[in-house]
Amino acid sequence: MLLAKIESCSVLGMEAAAVNVEVDISNGLPAFSIVGLPDTAIQESRERVRSGISNSEFEFPLKRITVNLAPADIRKEGPSFDLPIALGILSATKQLLSEKLSDYLFVGELSLSGKIRPVSGVLSMALCAKKQNKKGFIVPEGNASEAALVKELEIIPVSSLREVIDFFSGKKEITPVSGDIEKFFENNLYHELNFSDIKGQEHAKRALEIAAAGGHNVLMIGPPGSGKTMLAKRMPTIMPNMTFEEAIDVTKIYSIAGALQSKQSLIATRPFRAPHHTISTAGLVGGGQYPRPGEISLSHNGVLFLDEFPEFSKSALEVLRQPLEDGVVTISRALSTFTFPATFMLVTAMNPCRCGYLGDKVRECTCLPSHIRQYRGRISGPLINRIDIQIEVPRLTKNELVGVSIGESSEKIGKRVQEARERQQKNAKGTNITCNAQMSPRIIKKRCKLSDSAQNLLENAIDKLSLSGRAYDKVLKVSKTISDLAGKELIETEHLAEALQYRCLDNTTNYYCS
Amino acid sequence: MEKKYWLGLKLISVLDSKILKIIDYFGTAEEAWEAKKNDFLKIDGVSPKLIGEIIKKREDIDLDFWWQKYKSLEIDVVTFLDNDYPSLLKEIPNPPPVLFFKGDLLKSYSEAIAIVGSRRATAYGRAFAEELALNLSRAGVTVISGVARGIDSAAHKGALAEKGNTIGVLGCGLDVVYPPENKLLYRAISEQGSLVSEYLIKTEPFKWNFPARNRIISGLAKGVVIVEASEKSGALITADFALEQGREVFAVPGNPKNSLSKGPHKLLKSGACLIENTDDIFEALGLNYTSNSQKKCLTNLTEKELKVLNFISWDLKYIDEIIRELSLSSSETASLLTTLEIKGFIKQDTGKKYLRIS
Question: Quick check: pTM over 0.80?
Fold first, then answer.
C-alpha cells in the first residue's frame, strides 16, 4: 500500500482551516480521483498535477490514485491544492523521501510546466500554519512577502516543483524570507495625495476634517466638476494612521480577495475604494458560492467612496445599512455562515439634482421641482440617518480659483484629527466605542454635555431651523467631535453652531423650493 | 337647497360653460335640474346632441350622495347669484358660476392683492414675496395666490405669519393636495384664510386647469404683483388676465442677468407699476396705509456677526466667499452663519449660499 499525507489549508471566509491531503496509490486500472468536497478548480488540478509532474522529470504513476481532502465535510476551493497533491503523489511513489515533510504546510498552484504560481489568501494560511505549530510554510515565490508578515514561521519561497523536491532532498538550500515588517510598515506610511492640492473649498475641507476626527459618514452634494471626488480621495490622508494590527486585518482581506499586488507584503495606508455605481449587491457586500469579501470589506479601516450616490441600485444601497451599524457583514450560505469585517467610513457624493446644476452660480438648473424630489428620494431616510455630515460643495468659477491660496497640508490636518481621536478614545475607555460616530442615543445623552448658552441655541435651532428629531442626535454627535477638535470638554455655542451647518439634507426647505 | 342643484349642474360636466345661460333661462337651478328635454330645446346654443348628453348624465348622478360628500369634507359652495359671491369676481369676463371653498375669509374679505411668480424662484424672490405678504397682511390686506411651489408658497407663508388673511386658489379639487409637500400649508390656509377652487373634488391638477385658475386669482384681487417669472411663466398669464379684467399690475425688478427677471421686466417695459416695497402698492391703489415694517435691531449682534452680515448684504454669497474675503476660519464662519440664521437676519439657499433678509 502506498499512502502519503501532506498538510495544506483552505480559506473559509476570513480564516484558513487546516486540510490534510491524503494520497493513496493502489493497483488497478489507471485512474485519478479527488474526493472531499472539491470545487471545479480542484477537480481540474488533476490535469495540472499530471503535466506538472511529468514536465518536472518525475514519473507520474500509471495506477489508481485517490486523493482525499480531509476533513471531508468542508467545501474546498481554488487551485492552491495543486502543490500538496503533487507532493503527495511523489511521496507515495517514493520519489520524494523526507522526514521533514510533516514540519511544513504547503500551498501553491502548478502550471503545466511544473512552475508554481501565486494563490490568494496566503496571509490567512500563514497564520493557520502558525496556529498548527508548523516549523515552516512553503509558499509560491509571489506570495512570500505577504506570508512573511507572520513572525516565528519559516517562510520558504518556491518557484517550481523541482525546487521543492530539491529542497527536501537536501540538494538545495532556500533561505527563508524575513524582513523587519515594522520598519517596512513605518516606511510605507506616506500618501501620494495631499489636501494642499485642493484650492478653495475651505468649508468642505473643514467638514472632512471633522468627519475624519469623529469617524462620521459624509455626503457631499455639488455640481459636476466641483471637486467632490478630489476631496474624497484625500480623505485617507488625514485619517489617523492605521495600527499594525489594523494593517494586518486589511492585508488579510486583500489577500483573500486576491487583490494584493504582487510583492506587496502589507497594506500600510488606509484603503480607499470607489466602486462604480453599476456594482451589484454581492459585489458591494461580498458573496459568491464561496463568499468573497466585497467592496465594503475591502474598505475596512478605510474609506468607501460612492460617487453618484443616487445612481446605485436601491438594493445595493439598502444592504449597506446593517454593516454601517455593526461594522461587520455576515453572509449566510446553506452550509455555513461567513463574517467579514466592514468597519469603514462612508463618503458619498451626488449632484444636487438630475441635471446637476441646481444652485450653481453660472449654469442654470433645468430640472422641475418634481424631478428634484424624485432624484433626492432615491436615497432612503434610514440611510440618510446614518450619514452625520452632509455638505454642499459648490463649483468655483475660474476667477475664484485664481486668487485662492493653497490650503493646509494633510499632515497638519491629520495631526489635529489624531489628537481628537485620542481624546475620544480616552473618554470612551471601557466601552467598545472608538469614535464619536458610534455613540448610541443613550451614550449621546450621557456624554454630549452642552454649556448653558449652547443649550439655549439648540432650543432656538429646533424652532427656527426646523431641526427634525433625527437630525438632533446627529448634530450633537458632530458638535461633540468639533469640541474634541478644539480640545474642550463641554460643547460650547460655537461648536454647536458650526455643527448645524453640516446637515443640508435634513433641512428640506432648502431643496424643495417650497 | 338651491346650491345643491348648482352642484348638480356642475356635476354634469358637459354643461360647464353654459351653466349661467341655462339658469338664466330657467330662473333657478332647481328648475333647470328638473327640466324636461323639450324645455332645453328653447335655449339658444344648446344643440339636441348636447341635450341628449345632459339628460343621460343627469340620470347617472346621485345628487344627494354628492351633496353629502361635500358637506362631510366641509366644503362650502358659493354661486354666482349669491350675495356673498366675491363682488370683484363678478365683474370679470367668464366668471366661475360655482366656487367651492373652505374657510370663511372668501365671504368677508375686502381689499386683496395677488402675489404670483415662478415655481422655481430664487431665495431672493421667495424672501421678497414673503416680506411683501407679511406687510400686506399686517395692514389688513388679503393676500391671494395659487398655493404652488416657490413664490406662491412664500406669499401664503408670509401672510399666515401675521394675521392669516390669505386666499389660496387651486387648479385642482379641494381634496387633492398639489404639490404634495404643501399639505400643511393647505391646512393652515383653510383654517385661517380660505382655500378656493372652481373644480369638483377629485379633479386632478391637469395643466390646462392652471390658466383658468389664474383668472380667478387676478379676479379676486385689486392688483397682481409678479415677483419672479421666466418669459413663459404662468404668472404672466395671470398678469394678462389682470389687464383684461382691469386690475393693476405690479412687477418686482430683479437681477437683469437672471432669467427669472425676464417676466417682471417685460411687464415693466410695457408699463406695469414698479414695486420696491409695500408702500408702493398702497400708493398705487390709493389705499391709505403705511407699512411700519419693523427694521430688525442690529445692536444685539456681535462685531463679527455684523461684519459677516454687512458682507453678505443683499446679494447671495457662498460660504467660501465669506471665508476668503473676510479671512475668517471656516469653523468660525460656519458658526457665525448659524447664529445669524437663527437670529433671523439671513437665509440659506441651495449650494451653501446666504442671503440677507432683514
Answer: yes
